[in-house]
Each structure stands twice: as structure tokens, then as C-alpha cells.
Amino acid sequence: MSPGPSYPAPVLVFGASGAIGRFLLPRLRAAGVPVLAVSRRPRPAHAGVSWLEGALPDAVPALPVAPAGIVSLGPLGPFAQWLDTVRPRGARVVALSSMSAQSKQCSPVAAERAIAAALQAGEARLARACRAAQASHVVLRPTLIYGAGLDRSLTPIVRRARRLRVFPLPAGRGLRQPVHADDIALAVLAALARPQLDGQVLAIGGGEQLSAVQMFARVRASLPFATVPLPLPAVLLRAGARLLPRLRGPLGRLDEDLVADNAELERLLDVHPRPFAPTAAAWTPPTPP
To answer: Could you tell me which residues come within 8 angstroms of residue 243 by beta carbon, excluding any fewer than 6 positions away?
Structure first.
């Protein structure tokens, strides 16, 4: 799976300081791939990683060398806009989108439908820019991400439980498929190593589908401190959705299946994500890259 021999030039990484970057950068370094990483604040170069200070879409500095690969682990829209402007010829591009492009397109909440539309527009703009630059590309659509203590879904619940020593357990019939950030890093690495794959949009979920109730119960069981379970029955959740419109989408989706079909991911990239078995380490950020 190592892309090292094909990458004498560096791989440029946006979003390297986030959840997936914490796992991807060590894997790239272990494969002998030089890395250029872009950050909003200055960072010292170390262990094969050179940091550039900048921000998407229009504050990215001039690159010291043409990258062989470009990875986007952050918001897709600004990255697609930058790529459409720069159009680095011949680079291999791997970008993260989200399964929200699919799951939120029919949401009753207008803001969520807008998120889905923006993701789909970003994917389309990315594809056009890559065609114009004769660059091959792969888009990954992950489900709910966990594993680095930086996500905005499960980790905030853990932090609140740490403060209050109470863990909410909402009812929900929908299936979930949490995917570990390191498995996404593995998929990025595999996609970089397969430039013959072009234009693929691959869903990536965890290696196990489980109910929302089971997911929350496993998160609680992984905690290194005691909490009091707080069951939230469906009738209470429906009342909350009526009283708090901003929660209508998230609460309504508790009865929906938010899963991914990993068949193409496994066939094309030979990546097989792990089942959902979190430990306490999943809610603590690893050492910054």
C-alpha cells in the first residue's frame, strides 16, 4: 500500500492538523513520502513534514515545488475553489467530501439541504478542475468520523459527560456506521497509490453497522470514568424537535439509516475499516503532527 516509490515529489496536504491528518502524516512519513502541509498558523518543520502558513481558498502561498499528490482533509468547497484556480497539472488528487452529500439532500431543514447541495457542487467543481489540469482524482465520502478526539459528533458528548457525569442515551431505530479516522487515512494512502483510479466517489463507513442505541452505549462503555445513563425516549426527542427547530434534522435522523456501502472501497482500494470498538483513547487527541 506504500505510495513511496511513485512519489519522489512531495504530497501537499490541506487539513493536516485535523483528525485524519493526525494519522495520515505519520503514515506518509513511514512510507518515505515527503510532505508539504498547509496550516493557518506557523509550525516548525520536522520529520519529513514542511509546513506552509496559509488558508484556503485564496491565501495559499506559492508552492516551493510542484507536488506529485494533493490531499484535502478539510472543507471541500474552498479546496475545490483553490484547485479550480491553480489547476496543478498532472497531480494526483484525493479529497474528502461527506456522506451528508447524500443523507441530507432531502432533509426537512433548509440549512442541511444547503450543506448537501454545497458538497455536491464542490465535488462537481473538483472534477472539472481535475479534468482541466489532466489530474486524476478520487473523492471519499465518510460516514460519522471518530478516533482522534476532534470530531464534532461523539467527542462533544464525551466531554459533556466528563463534566456532568451523565451520559444521554437517545432512542433511535436507525443504523449507524462510525468510521475511525485512521481507516480514512489508510484509504487516502491507498488512493494516492492508485492513480489509475480517476473520478471515483467512494463511500467509506466503519466495518460494522449498529443501531444508534448500540453506538451510544458503546461510547459510554469506553469511557474511563463512571457516568449515570440518561435514557431519552422517542416521545421526548420528538417534543424536543418541535420545540427546538435547529435539532429537527439531527433528532429526526435517529430513526434513519446513515450507513455506507464499502464494497467499492474494498474492491478498488483494498481497505477494510475496523468494527466500532472504541477505547478511551478515541476521545483524546493524539500528539499534533
So the answer is: none
Mean pLDDT, the chain, integer: 91
5: pLDDT strictly greater than 60: no
Contact by Cβ (8 Å): 116, 108? no
Residues 6+ apart with CB under 8 A from 236: none
Cβ atoms within 10 Å of 71's Cβ, excluding its own: 29
Segment 181-209 mean pLDDT: 96
7, pLDDT greater than 80: no
Q: Could you give the CA distance from residue 52 to residue 7 in angstroms, rounded to a whole number?
A: 19
Cα 98 → chain centroid: 7
Q: Residue 140 is placed in which grid cell? A: 471519499
Short-list 151, 277, 273, 283, CA closest to 214: 277
Cβ count within 10 A of residue 287: 6
Strand ranges, E, within 73-188: 92-96, 137-142, 145-146, 166-170, 175-176, 179-180
Say how many C-beta atoms besides its own lie within 10 A of residue 168's C-beta: 15
Q: What proportions of the chain, in percent to the nearest 5, are helix, strand and coil? A: 40, 20, 40
Record the cell numbers describing residue 53, joined without a space.
502558513
Cell readout for 278 is: 472504541
Per-residue model confidence as pLDDT tens digits over 210-236: 999 999 999 999 999 999 999 989 888
Does the predicted model carry a pTM greater than 0.85?
A: yes
